[in-house]
Amino acid sequence: MTGDADPVRRRARQKTKPPLDASQASALVRARESASQASSEASVRISLRGATLRDGDALIAVLDAAKESRAKTLNLSGALRSIPGADLRRALATSGALEGLEELSLAETPELAETPRSDDDEMRDVFEALVTVKGLNLMRCGIGGRVWALERAMGTKTATCRSVNLRDNGLDADDARALIRACEANEALESIVMTNNPEVSVEMATAVRERSRINWQRARRMEAARGMEVRKDGVASFRKIGLTDDDVRACIGALLDDGVVIERLDVRDNALSEVGMELLRHELERSPPTTSVNASGNPGFATDSFRRLAGQAAANFIHVDRCDEALKSVSDRHVGDEGALVIANALRERRESVRAFGAHHNSIGARGCVELANALLENHRSLREFAVYANDIGVDGAKALARLVEVHGALEVLDSGGNGIGDDGCVAIAEAISRSVNASRLIELHLDHNSISNIGARALLSALRERQAAGNPLRTLWINGNQIDDTLARELTECCSGTYVHDVEGVINRAMNSRGSAPTEEMILVAEREAAAASRMRGSDSSTLANRIAARVGAEYRSRCSAHAAATRGTAVIAGIVAQNVNENEPRDLTVLSLGVGTKFVPGDVAAAIGNRADASLWDAHVHDSHAEVLARRGLLRLLYRELESLVRAGESTFLEHNATGTVALKRDVTIHLYVSTAPCGAASAGPKGVVSHDWNDHDARDLQTHVTPEIEQGWFGPSYKGNDDDSLIEGPPGCVLISHASRAIGVAGKSLSCSDKIARWHAVGVQGALLSHFVEPVRLKSVVIGRKFDFSRCTFATCCRGRRRGDGPRSHPWMMHSTIKLECGGVESSSGGRELAGDGDESISWAFGEGDASAHDGRTGTSLGGASAISICSRIVLWHQFSSLVETIRQRPDCALKDKVPTVEPWSYDQAKRAASTYAAARRALYFD
Fold first, then answer.
1. One domain, residues 277 and 373
2. What CATH number is given to the structural domain containing 73?
3. Which one, 225, 478, 761, 769, has least CB within 10 Å?
């Protein structure tokens, strides 16, 4: 149907504005281009829908203007109705401006096919031009009987068309066969829409769809393989591509057939049912390197089939990994009992005994726990640690663990917290301890948060006293979070020795002498390019420097902590401290000084119990706060001690220099910057958004950023500490307890200020802390760069301006900046979408410049991984050792300028030396107590 015979088209013509000539059309494209660039879209998208072009010259002008603007999408639906068919085809075939377009819509343009049947050359030329566009919309263009032209065009070398919409085009069986041949001629064609073509039978439509799907599957395989080659992280990503059960074998199985080694598989947000999950499990069975699979967002997720799939991935991990650390085993996979059975079979098949095994946070019940415990007992005689906390094993599961405690000859650590075992389960474990008083090597037992009352606690107390009397006491018992009287809980704790390994020199030497993996020059250049790309699209509150800092921290993290970055499920919180030398050229001007990864802290009641012990070194041996910012600062402190040692011994330091006051300061050319991947916990990340922002100009002096104490928004929070107790009823930031004044958490065992409050302290008195302040001038942060959840007003209020008093100059304020660089996408995200999306698990990491490998510890307990419960490099006992070593070095050099700065205190202890830093202490009191 042509001309005005079509009433729909006639009515549309009556409603449209007068047709546009070439000049008007070109101007409209430029206007639409500007509107597209002003939006948040990454690529230019131009739509002329609703407009009408006068003739072929106007169309050529539009195509040329779109090409000049580098548009990726051009929508001309209904805009070409006034152009005669011959002019339309000539313009499309000869302009040469379609190259570079990714999507082109010519919908509702029947003039495209209004040509004599004998004029084959013209149609072929038109389609050869059209198929250079990846996505082509030809809906309602009346090309029935002309699909042969598309078939021939797809056979040419320039054809790159991936998808074509032929809905409502009067297609017939011959056209359908031509489409099948087009797919065979060019594997790029992977999607064909041909609904509402009544002359095409269901069988023929299915045949077209299946043939194009073969091309689609091949393309997805190639994309996954290319992505793995570029990232080199072992992750095969098929996320959010419409993957169905029928595609599992053709996509993933075929990729394995090609010899591609898949370590982690990402199939999130697709259409996989339980059948698809089973098919995936069979593929993983023949691919032992595939040790992790993420299948959330599919209909078959959270079914028994998924749990068996997750269990198979965990089983593969067991076969290929040494399993020397419980926190690096098969946790956070939500395998349930079905998956636990698969894991147990893998444990039975494994020839080498595991030393530590963790199955925590997995929704495992009694059946799964029994199978796991039996498998470990039967085949793993070297097992030292078993972590099964945060499941639902109940009484029967506890009885299986009790047998493990009684019979296993090597087990040292059992973590069964958060399992609801109740009094009966506790009694079963207590009886097992009594029956193995002399034989058992168990030294650490976790029964926290298990609904245990005084009944179970008394049975446990009797068993622990037996072990104590036999000279074989437990070292540590975690019993918090139960319904046990304080007196009874204290008696339980007193039955334990509380002895930890304090090999400080060994901890430091291992960190310093490990090889590590520094970012390569290529990685640094990639980070600079990433920062440049983010800066081109940045909005307010950001700057090129902010993005460079974030990208460099990301490069250091992915290199130093490659295993953590690859395996992390959920959103890790990453912090880094970066030095900038203003006299160096980019990219050498930036140096990452320290890293911290973590979201955990020792529970308040546990920390309080440790603090109340007579042995003060026990408190210093634990890392009480393992949030990322805190760990990054601890790494900086270790570095500053080493730099001071070097300055005293050799008169040289990379970052420090002597000053006129007889102390040491940062070199004048060096500034220090803090990066955090998400707004710090506490006031900076909670409450309503503010209204103030700062529009950075990279060419302006950045010191001009002003921090005016903002008008306090209703709902903004004050000081807070981490954890929950009776004060948790007070409304406050998530994860924190709001307090009336920060002094309530200062020096109180079991309470740790929020990171917002700690950063405020660092701004006020310096990040160097009390001990280093004896020798070092306050080390100030020049900027704070924040990723997710950034809000300028709220962050400045929380971490800086809230603690300011009148008289402070503007230069005492750090720059507060935002970066859109994402550091958390290196690994496979949580397979469940559950608890672990709030953090990065229990493993906490710290690294400092000069150290090789990053050091890890258990953020829940504040001690090292793997059941040894040795000290972490982040503990205060390590810092005290470094301070004492520095003092000894200074004392050995009579001419050292810092000799008079050594504190004279009795007893010579961490706390006494801190209090002796009078200037620092006064500033700290003014911040918290005035």
1. no
2. 3.80.10.10
3. 225
Residue 621, token pair as written in the block: 């041996």
Both structure tokens of 812: 């005492």
Compute and round to an integer the Cα radius of gyration of the chain: 33
Is a pLDDT exceeding 80 seen at residue 603?
A: no
Are residues 150 and 114 part of one domain? yes
Q: What is the rounded distance in angstroms from the CA atom of residue 46 to the CA atom of residue 23? A: 17
Same domain, 160 and 202: yes
Beta strands in 529-653, from DSSP E residues, in sequence order:
574-581, 590-597, 599-601, 625-627
Q: What is the pLDDT of residues 240-259, one digit of tens each?
A: 999 999 999 999 999 999 99
Amino acid 611 reads G
The DSSP bridge partners found for residue 673 are: 578, 783
What was the pLDDT predicted at 831? Answer: 39
In a domain, 21, yes or no: yes
- What are the pLDDT digits (tens) for 546-573? 999 999 999 999 899 887 776 665 568 9
Q: Which one is predicted more confidently, 814 or 419?
A: 419
Domain span at residue 608 reads 518-702+713-928
Please indicate, yes or no, if residue 224 is contained in any of the structural domains: no
Residue 746, φ and ψ in degrees, nearest 5: -85, 125
926's tokens: 């003014």
Looking at residue 112, its pLDDT comes to 87
Confidence (pTM): 0.81
Of 230, 229, 824, 227, give the one whose Cα is nearest residue 238.
Answer: 227
CA 404, 405, 409 angle in degrees (round to 5)? Answer: 85
Terminal alpha carbon distance of the chain: 86
- Rounded distance, CA 377 to CA 381, Å? 7
For residue 294, give the 3-state DSSP assignment.
Answer: strand
pLDDT computed for residue 483 by the predictor:
94
d(CA 407, CA 438): 12
pLDDT in tens, 526-541: 999 999 888 887 667 7
